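Q: What does the assembled structure look like for these inputs?
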Amino acid sequence: MNRITYTVAKKPRQFWGCISGAGGPQARLTRPPSLQERCVAALARVERTDFLSPLCIGEVVHASAEITYTSKHSVEVQVNVTSENILTGVTKLTNKATLWYVPLSLEDVDRVLEVPPVVYSRQEQEQEGRKRYEAQKLERMETKWRNGDIVQPVLNPEPNTVSYSQSSLIHLVGPSDCTLHGFVHGGVTMKLMDDVAGIVATRHCKTNVVTASVDAINFHDKIKKGFIITISGRMTFTSNKSMEIEVLVDANPVLTNTPKRYRAASAFFTYVSLSQEGRSLPVPQLVPETEDEKKRFEEGKGRYLQMKAKRQGKAEPQP
Amino acid sequence: MNRITYTVAKKPRQFWGCISGAGGPQARLTRPPSLQERCVAALARVERTDFLSPLCIGEVVHASAEITYTSKHSVEVQVNVTSENILTGVTKLTNKATLWYVPLSLEDVDRVLEVPPVVYSRQEQEQEGRKRYEAQKLERMETKWRNGDIVQPVLNPEPNTVSYSQSSLIHLVGPSDCTLHGFVHGGVTMKLMDDVAGIVATRHCKTNVVTASVDAINFHDKIKKGFIITISGRMTFTSNKSMEIEVLVDANPVLTNTPKRYRAASAFFTYVSLSQEGRSLPVPQLVPETEDEKKRFEEGKGRYLQMKAKRQGKAEPQP
Amino acid sequence: MNRITYTVAKKPRQFWGCISGAGGPQARLTRPPSLQERCVAALARVERTDFLSPLCIGEVVHASAEITYTSKHSVEVQVNVTSENILTGVTKLTNKATLWYVPLSLEDVDRVLEVPPVVYSRQEQEQEGRKRYEAQKLERMETKWRNGDIVQPVLNPEPNTVSYSQSSLIHLVGPSDCTLHGFVHGGVTMKLMDDVAGIVATRHCKTNVVTASVDAINFHDKIKKGFIITISGRMTFTSNKSMEIEVLVDANPVLTNTPKRYRAASAFFTYVSLSQEGRSLPVPQLVPETEDEKKRFEEGKGRYLQMKAKRQGKAEPQP
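A:
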């Protein structure tokens, strides 16, 4: 769960006159891609984010951001968040995040505008960026197919089962949840997702839990003021010391004439359980019951092993 | 005073596709009564509500709601709020509340729309509902007559008098106090009313005080964005261990061309005084001075004795 | 930094049907100068404000306000803020503030309306008011000339230099920061200014710091919803036991077709450093490096000595 306190950007990098005010992973970007047409930047995706160290009350947060790649219709923004204890002067990297924005026309928010190309200082930057762009595009499409599913309540579930800890939250999108143009802030959705994931994790292991990382969050569709959103979380996998929780966000445009519930966002959160002294504790093992739960458990295990291999690969680089 | 912390609906009952997001007694309901015309549901009345157990920080709140009766122009909604300590798994009923909503046309908010009739599972449900509907209608009209009165400041009042503890709060209704349609949230008004009642009770007995119950709250008229509201509280009655405080809400449409102050809502709050250990303390006796104060004291005594009899009647049901 | 908690006006003086809801120094005034045209009152200036005693959590705040002078196009409002500990009944004067408002037409916010003249109870009140009006008008113009300057980051600054503690905060003006008419609340800007000043002071002396006073704050120009504001603070002067911090607010209308950054507000904050027991501590001496820093240090010293002389003049009135 988030512990954001106080936002200060000491040395904000201004790139191209573009501004990206950032508060933890809740970065916002609003920029006109050209002088001809006003636009709003819609958050489309947040890449996998690791929470390296917690933010504490009273600390000053520094967030800096820069554009690292542009495709025809999207902008990649890299955000770095550091925390500073202003009494001791100690500074720590809190997290790094990569966000993808899509510019929408303010006259017609269903129309995506073209992004003026960024100028790279090195040739390879463009190639590396294009690789990242293609990879996330593929992943986005995969998630979209996975999205039929809904979390259903179960009566009298057994401890350690998926049903036992699954939780849902209902939220009416009010004016203060929204940007200037009446769409819900990406950061509001992300906070609610983290809230639900935290409840699921606490219910499962009855201890103090913290977010260790968030898998890529895909925003499949816009959510508008007045919509009802249902944020559901269910545990998918446990390793010895971590829990993976899938969070689904469904939106219901209740006030429109033809309300039709749709999947607006989804992500996997990884939580760890901490002792009073802040050391990580073993986690009760999840007991998948249905075929679907067993399938999701195996998929979660796959993601876990892949991340573990990646981390070890980084720690001991191959020749 | 409210201690609401965290809102989660685990198993929200969806009735007719109507949604009632609820946060403590601040339930909201927005539903289209027919597909032909969009509407907003205005909170008209909250029935007497007992606060059975406090909500503590970190607990998860479950609020569920269902429609229990419909008249031609109003909807009765029953809300149940339970709190769950997710570390221990202990669940407690926090309160039950009955709310009446009236659907207003979004094209013309002064026009009340017709409510499509609810389908009852048992015949008696409709009859019981109609009784509740008639009873509250009568009570609403009575309160309206009582509403001329204004709380006036008194210089150098004596301790334990009504003047000594009476308090007023002035609030400009801002955008974040309002629903999507620019009317103040019922929950915002109720919180301010409870705030004032809490100040009156604290001034009277100089101890830690908590809300024990709230009498029916009638919302006589809508309050819009930009209006100034004055929330006044005065003690009306004390028993050995409880205080009754009348709270009046007056609205002033300052920005309109013909501002005319009107009574927007009123209710009686019952507070108790608690020791450090949470046990209820005796309360200093109120000293009514004027004829009006003495009359209100007797009326308060009547309500107190009636509620006491009702509670005892429930505890020891007659043959 | 502000410690505002709870706002209650027990005996609000209503003057002319004008209402000024006040929350600490964040007073707001909205009044129609005539029945013919609706207007919004824009905060133009806050006179020097001393923080006489802190507000503590749980205390009740009483704010009262009255109009003390009117020029053709502006209104002077005097606000008194007292805090009351409702358990002990002890009341303290927290601060007094003088605010200048300018009425703008709601049909065209760039048009300043005429203010209907106030009726004075004594003849001298008008003359004294006119003196205050002329004095602040002169000072406003002087500040406007001083306003070219921008705070630039410096790499690896030495402790106790201006560069070492200087800080900037970037904020996107969202809907909840604004009044009903889409302009940022004066109180929101003032809070952000105090936040930055507090960070600068903490970085400089690594202790618990509190605001002792705020020099006149001039609001040079309106800030609208959707603008980006940059709030920068730099230390200008230190005496043995106090620090003066200059705070500059720059606004950038990013979403307009011709965004042009402008100075929206500026002020000098005086902070003191406190020990755990709340006693004032000596402050590390500021080391000005550049010519500009040395010039600002001397100007700050001038303001400090002038205020000191004024306070001593008040303490020992001359014959």
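Chain A touches chain B at residues 153, 167-172, 174-176, 195-196, 199, 202-203, 206-207, 225-226, 228, 252, 254-255, 257, 259 (CB under 8 Å).
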